[in-house]
Design a protein that fits this description.
This protein is of the alpha+beta class and 216 residues long. It contains three helices and twelve strands.
């Protein structure tokens, strides 16, 4: 004997179609990670897109020149920066820049050259929380072609993360060198560790300043 099914009214059928449509839309939006209500959720979605993480946030960079917010993070044997964009009132996924950790190296810069964007901070990760002062040195060229050495100092890092930013007044009319040197000092001002002095090529310090610079 064939059973009799429940016959839906026109209003009930319309409501079912609306519910199915809303459910399908929700699934699509979830898959696309949009819209994203908070920066933190945008960070997590960005990591998923780049097969990175889930990471531990070390510090937040609010004043990034290209992104609304950036997160300096650690994941397994990697350090990285996850950047996201604000699109009022929501957030949009961005990019992941990462660098493998070397436990034998005291400081790990995000990359081995300064950012091409003049006022973006050089982000440095520390493999020990005992570091209290880090310096970043790099040569710059003024508009008249003269070379000078700029030194940026940060006395305290945030969970092993150092953001070394150059004030705009220090580089007005100048261009960054792509070669820099990092140094670590203890509380007494004694040098603890220093990265190799950049040499060779057109931007080697020995080429720019002469061989005596290697003794500094």
């Amino acid at each position: 004997m064939k059973g009799t099914g429940t016959t839906l009214t026109r209003r009930q059928r319309a409501l079912r179609y609306v519910l199915l449509l809303l459910l399908s839309l929700a699934v699509i939006l979830y898959a696309l990670d949009f819209p994203i209500p908070t920066a933190e959720l945008a960070r997590r979605a960005t990591e998923r897109q780049h097969y990175f993480g889930p990471s531990e946030v070390l510090c937040i960079i609010e004043d990034h020149p290209l992104y609304s917010r950036a997160y300096a993070v650690r994941w397994n044997n990697w350090y990285g920066v996850v950047s996201v964009l604000k699109a009022d009132p929501f957030w949009i996924t961005g990019r992941v820049d990462s660098v493998p950790n070397d436990p034998d190296q005291l400081l790990i810069p995000l990359e081995d050259s300064a950012h091409p964007f003049p006022f973006a901070p050089v982000i440095v990760f520390s493999n020990t929380h005992s570091i209290t002062l880090v310096t970043l040195e790099f040569p710059v060229r003024s508009e008249d072609g003269e070379m000078a050495m700029i030194t940026v100092i940060q006395k305290e890092g945030d969970h092993g993360c150092f953001l070394l930013s150059v004030p705009s007044t220090e580089v007005n009319g100048r261009t960054y060198s792509s070669r820099f040197r990092l140094s670590v000092y203890d509380a007494n001002g004694e040098l603890v560790w220093r990265s190799p002095t950049p040499t060779g090529g057109s931007e080697g310090w020995d080429v720019i300043f002469g061989p005596d610079v290697l003794e500094l």
